[in-house]
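Quick review question:
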């Protein structure tokens, strides 16, 4: 399950970033499996206090994360981290 984090973007542009991320992920055929999390944060460079927003792509498959990150980078030209996560446990609906 790919998980894309949108971190530290200004509230005036974050929706546009989300729309573009969602469209790209859907074009890759992963729309039903991926989730996007918006993380409001004050991100700044250590040597220069200007905003430093970025994306993080996580997946249980490193090649899958790299594929998504590359597609996002080609279209959006943003700083992007990608990483393999150890695993994922899906919630199971309880019987009522």
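Suggested answer, residue by residue:
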């Amino acid at each position: 399950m790919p998980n894309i984090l949108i971190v530290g973007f200004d509230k005036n542009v974050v929706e546009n970033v989300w729309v573009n991320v969602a469209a790209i992920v859907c074009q890759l055929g992963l729309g039903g499996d991926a989730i996007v999390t918006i993380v409001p944060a004050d991100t700044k460079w250590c040597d220069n206090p200007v905003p430093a927003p970025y994306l993080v792509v996580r997946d249980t498959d490193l090649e899958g994360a790299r594929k998504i990150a590359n597609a996002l980078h080609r279209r959006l030209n943003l700083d992007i981290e990608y990483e393999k996560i150890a695993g994922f446990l899906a919630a199971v609906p309880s019987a009522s």
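Why it works: The chain has one domain: 3-84. Residues 3-84 form a domain with the Macrophage Migration Inhibitory Factor fold (CATH 3.30.429.10).
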